[in-house]
Amino acid sequence: MDLTHTAQEEDFRAEARAWLRAHVPAEPLPSLETEEGFAAHRAWEAELAADRWSVVSWPERYGGRGADVFRWLVFEEEYYAAGAPGRVSQNGINLLAPTLFDHAAEEQRARVLPSMATGEVVWAQAWSEPEAGSDLAALSSRAVRTPGGWLLYGQKTWSSRAAFADRAFGIFRTDPAADRPHRGLTYLMFDLRAPGVTVRPVGRLDGKPAFAELFLDEVFVPDEDVIGAPGQGWRIAMSTTGNERGLTLRSPGRFLAAAERLVRLWRATGEDRGLRDRVADAVIGARAYQLFTAAGASRFAAGATIGAESSLNKVFWSEYDIALHETALDLLGGEWAESGAGGWSDGEWADGAWAEGFLFSLAGPIYAGTNEIQRDIIAERLLGLPKGRR
Amino acid sequence: MRFRLTDEQRDFGRSLDALLTAADTPAAIRSWGAGDPGRGLALWARLAEAGVFALAVPQAYEGAGAGSVEVAVALTELGRHGVPGPAVETVAASALLTELARRGEADPAERLLPGIASGETVTTLAIPASTATSTSTPSPGAGGTSGTSGTTPGTPSARLRAGAASGTPPPRPGAGGTSASPAPRGFGPRPGRGEAVDSTAYALDADVAGLTLVVAGDELRIARGHGPVRVSADPARRFARPGGGELLAAGPAVVAAAEHAARWAMLATAAQSLGVGLTLLDRTVAYAKQRTQFGTAIGSFQAVKHRLADTLIGLEFARPLLFGAALTFESTDLAAAKVGAGEAAYAAARTALQIHGAVGYTEELDLSLWLRKARPLRDAWGTPSRCRALVLGAS
Q1: Which end of chain A is flanked by fewer CB atoms within 10 Å, N or C?
Q2: What predicted TM-score, i.e. pTM, was given to this entire model?
Q3: A276 with B321: Cβ contact below 8 A
Q4: Percent of chain B with pLDDT over 70
Q5: Could you give the ipTM of this predicted complex?
Q6: Which CATH superfamily is domain B261-391 in?
Q7: Min CA distance, B207 vs chain A (Å)?
C-alpha cells in the first residue's frame, strides 16, 4: 500500500504548476454562466489547449497527453489550487467524450474530439424532458428515420449552458413500439443552431441565464452523428452516467482547494470556536474524498471499472459541497448576502464567491442523477436490498 | 501510488475473519461482560497464534515488526467480530515500549515485549489526560533511526509485508509544519458517564490483564492490582483505576513515548470502530431483507433504503481515511480517521437500532453487542471534539 507519487508524476505536477502560474488570469473571469463569461471561458479553453492542458487524460492525437488517472488527479489538484477558471467544456469532456471513447468509431472520435479539446465546439447535455427527470426512460422526444439520417421532434429541458453552447448530445425515442421504456432509444448529437431548434434560456436560482429548454421540430441529424447502434441509447447513456458520477465529474483537487480556502477564512474571521468543528469536518471530508478517489483510481489502474460505487461518490461530494459553503457563509456572518461579485482576486476568494458557490452547490444533489436515485442505486446494487416502488 | 491492500494484507484480514467467524464470539462477548473472561481469553490465544499481538512489536523483541496497515487490518476484523479485551491498549502498549527503547530506555521493552507479542501477557494501558500535553513533539517513529525498533519504517516483515511502501509511516525528515504535527493528547479511555476523572486514568479490562502499564506524569509503572471494576455503557468494556506499582522508567522519554502510544491507539480505535460499523450495517441489511411489514420486505422501502445507503457512504469514506492515516501516520490524518470512523460507526448504530425497531432494543439480540460499542469507541482515545481540533492544528 502506497500513497506516494512517482518522480514522473511529481515532474508532471511541477510542469503543470509552472504553466498555471504563468497563465491563470490574475483577475477572475466573468461567470461562465453568462454570455460574456462564456466567451471568456471559451478563450481560456483555447489557451489551455494550445499547450495541451485542456484534456490531459486523452490520447495525444485528440489533443491530450495520454496521462493516466494518477497524473490526471495531480493535474486537477494543481488546477484548483491555482484558482484557475471553471471549465466551460466540462459537459463535453466529462460526459460525451467518455461515451465516445467507449462506443464511437475512430472516424467519429476524430471528427468530434479535437474541436471539443480546444473549446471551438462547446457541448450541452440534452437528456431531461418536462415529463422525464429521474425517470429518464420515460422520455418522449422522438427521432424519426429519414433518408441519410433522423428528424428530431420534442422538447428537452434543464440543459446546462445550452443558451450559449454549440452542439448537444442526448437520447431520443426511435422505436415507440419497443416493449419496455428503456428499449428503442438512440443516442445522438445535434447542432443547437440547426433549423428547427429553438433555444429558450431559463433563469436559474442563482440568477444566471445559462440553463435552457430546447424545442425541436424536424431537426435533421445525419447518420454519422448517431453514437453506437440505433436502439442502444439507454445502455450507452448509462455508461456515461457511470463516468459522470465517478472519478471525473468532481475532482478531489476542487474540494481540497475549497477546504483550504475555508480554513483561511476561519482564521481570518477570528477562529470562531463554535464553527470550528464544521471547519474541521470540511478538511476531513476533503481528505476522505481525496483518499476515496485515490483508492478508486488504484482499483481502476488495476483493471477494475467504475460501477455503482460512483453513486457513493456523487452523494458524498454533493452534500459535502453544500455543507462547506454553508459553513463559509456562517463564518462570514450576516454580511455575505450583500457581498459583491465573486471570483478569485489577489490570490484569495472574494466574499461574494462563497455566496455564488453556495447557490451553485444547492444544485448538486439534483443534477447528474438526483441523490434519491443514487441512494436507490446504492441500496439495490451495493447492499442488495430488494427493488420497490420509488 | 497503489492505494489498495496488498494480496497478503487482504489474505491476512480474511484469515482473521475466518478464525473469528468459526469461534462463537457473541458468547465470548457476553461472558466477558459478565466477568467471566475464559472464552474471551481462549479467543485471544487463537488471535495470538495468528500473530495479531506481534504485529506492533519489533522483530528485535520477538514480534512481527509489521506495519500500521496490518494493525489497521487486524483491528478492523476484531471490531467486526466484537472481540472483547484490550486490543487497542495492547497495540498502544507495544508502541509505548518500542518508542521508549528507541529513546534509549530499552530495559522495559526487552523484559515485556516478548510476552506481549506471544500473547502470553494480556496487556492494558492507562494514559491520563493530564499527561502527554505537549503539542510540539515531532512525529515519532518515522525516521527509521533506531536499530531496535521494528515498527519504524523500512523494517520489513517477511510474513506480512509485500512491498517496501506497505503500511509504515514514511520518513518525512525536516518537513516541518504538518508532519511535525501536534501529538494527540488527552485520551485515556473515558469511564462511564458521571464518573469523574482523577489524577490516575482508567484502564480497560485491567482486572483481566496480566500486565497493566500506567503512565502518570513522566513516570511509567506496572500497576499493582487494579482496584474496583466499573462496567461502562458497554458491559464488555470494563474499567478499573489501577494504582501505581513498580517504576519502569521516568523522564521526558516516557512523556514522548506515551504520546506515540496515543497515536497508535487512535489508529487502532478508528479501525475497531470501522469494523463495528461494518457489522452493524451487515446485520441490519440482512434484517431489512427478511423482515416483512405491509406485505413486503422493509428493505424495499425508500425510507429504509436511503438510511442504509447513507450508512454505507459514511463507512466507505471512513475506510480510506483509516488506511491513509496508517500510511502517513500524521496527527492530522490520524485524527481525521478517528473522527470519520467513530462518527460513521455511531451513525451505523443509530440506523441499526432504528431499522430493527423494538427487537433492536433488546439485550438478547446479538446486535446489542455491537450497538453498545459504537459510542464508547467514538469517544475513546481522542474525543471527536479533540480530534477535530487536531485536524486544524489547534491545541
Answers
A1: C
A2: 0.90
A3: no
A4: 82
A5: 0.94
A6: Butyryl-CoA Dehydrogenase, subunit A, domain 3 (1.20.140.10)
A7: 37
